[in-house]
């Protein structure tokens, strides 16, 4: 049994809290509400949370977890995460400001896993580089973007990613992996839940017109404000089927504004779910299931959620994240 197995019945969280507390640059908290860590602002308690403030501390934490039997949940900006109302009975790892750094050397950009994508996009354009402008419209972290191969406006992480440093919480230690080893596809990678991205190296291009890059940033931000809702949500809920749009299908199924409990399909963009203040993560899951069933009934297309789902029964997760077909979905 390994650290990522999910069998936590015999985990001594009190002892683990003490062990983490003895590691420099680690702050430990107990029973932290998931809603404090994700953009949906809902979700139950996380058993143990480790906030890590240095690469050395992350390496030590990974060694502790490699010997433990606890499930582990890496959390970045929480912009693509939904934790069930019952919470997560394991260890969540949050990277601190030491992982927000961005450095640029020529056309090579290195960003820490915690770096905010819009910040990285603006830094790249300010340095006269091109290729990462699309990320200004994605409210997530570099680590999360690598994990799900985030993208938009005709590009994605795979386009410019060269390599990553990653901590493996089942083995301990930090290793470098080339992009070819990540099996990046449409909104997916082969990174396991117990593997935490530490940093990413991008190969960008010299911009032919810095002014054009700045205009592209403004255009993307303007488009996002016009077409996507604000408030508590986690961005696009479902991946687009081949040659179609999940938002169009949900809209055509008559689900804009459809509500279950505290969760509602956005009136502005049908592929967004918004949650009332103090709402329920389980309501979001129920609404996702209803969307999948209605679209399947009306169009014979099974939508696939791109949201990280934690703490839910496996049959519910499988319902909204069915096996992907061979077209790269």
Lay out the secondary structure.
Blueprint: H1 13-21, E1 26-33, E2 45-52, H2 55-66, E3 72-75, E4 81-83, E5 88-95, E6 102-105, E7 108-112, H3 117-126, E8 129-130, H4 142-148, E9 151-152, E10 155-156, H5 157-160, E11 161-168, E12 174-178, E13 195-203, E14 205-206, H6 210-227, H7 246-252, E15 259-260, E16 263-265, E17 273-275, H8 281-299, E18 308-310, H9 314-320
Helix pairs in contact: 3-6
Mind explaining what this structure looks like?
This protein has 329 residues and is an alpha+beta fold. It folds into 3 domains: 13-97, Uridine Diphospho-n-acetylenolpyruvylglucosamine Reductase, domain 2; 100-225, Uridine Diphospho-n-acetylenolpyruvylglucosamine Reductase, domain 3 (2-Layer Sandwich); 230-320, UDP-N-acetylenolpyruvoylglucosamine reductase, C-terminal domain (Uridine Diphospho-n-acetylenolpyruvylglucosamine Reductase, domain 1), CATH 3.90.78. It contains 9 helices and 18 strands. The chain has helices spanning 13-21, 55-66, 117-126, 142-148, 157-160, 210-227, 246-252, 281-299, 314-320; strands spanning 26-33, 45-52, 72-75, 81-83, 88-95, 102-105, 108-112, 129-130, 151-152, 155-156, 161-168, 174-178, 195-203, 205-206, 259-260, 263-265, 273-275, 308-310. The protein has a 5-stranded antiparallel β-sheet. It has a 4-stranded mixed β-sheet with strand order 1-2-5-3, with helices on one face. The chain has a 3-stranded antiparallel β-sheet with strand order 15-16-17, covered by helices on one side. β6 and β7 form a beta hairpin. α3 (117-126) packs antiparallel against α6 (210-227). The chain starts with 12 loop residues before the first helix and ends in a 9-residue tail after the last helix. Mean pLDDT is 92; it is low at 1-8.
């Amino acid at each position: 049994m390994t650290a990522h197995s999910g069998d936590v019945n015999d985990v001594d969280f009190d002892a683990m809290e003490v062990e983490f507390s003895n590691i420099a640059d680690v702050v430990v908290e107990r029973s932290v509400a998931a809603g404090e860590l994700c953009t949906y602002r809902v979700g139950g308690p996380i058993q143990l949370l480790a906030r890590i403030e240095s690469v050395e501390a992350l390496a030590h934490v990974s060694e502790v977890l490699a010997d433990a039997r606890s499930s582990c949940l890496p959390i970045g900006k929480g912009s693509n995460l939904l934790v069930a109302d019952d919470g997560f009975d394991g260890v969540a790892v949050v990277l601190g400001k030491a992982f927000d750094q961005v450095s640029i050397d020529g056309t090579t950009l290195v960003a820490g896993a915690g770096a905010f994508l819009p910040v990285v996009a603006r830094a790249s354009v300010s340095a006269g580089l091109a290729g990462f402008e699309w990320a200004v419209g994605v409210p997530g972290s570099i680590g999360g973007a690598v994990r799900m191969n985030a993208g938009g406006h005709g590009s994605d992480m795979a386009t410019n990613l060269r390599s990553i440093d990653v901590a493996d919480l089942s083995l301990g230690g930090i290793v470098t992996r080339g992009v070819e080893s990540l099996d990046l596809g449409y909104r997916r990678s082969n990174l396991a839940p117990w593997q935490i991205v530490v940093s990413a190296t991008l190969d960008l291009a010299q911009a032919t017109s810095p002014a054009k890059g700045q205009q592209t940033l403004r255009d993307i931000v303007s488009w996002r404000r016009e077409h996507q809702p604000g408030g508590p949500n986690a961005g696009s809920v479902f991946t687009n089927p081949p040659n179609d749009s999940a938002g169009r299908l949900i809209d055509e199924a008559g689900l804009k504004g459809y509500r279950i409990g505290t969760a509602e399909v956005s009136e502005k963009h049908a592929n967004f779910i918004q949650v009332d203040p103090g709402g329920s993560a389980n309501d979001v899951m129920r609404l996702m299931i209803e969307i999948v069933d209605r679209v399947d009934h009306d169009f014979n297309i099974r939508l696939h959620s791109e949201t990280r789902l934690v703490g839910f029964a496996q049959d519910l997760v499988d319902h909204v994240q069915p096996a992907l077909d061979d077209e790269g979905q």
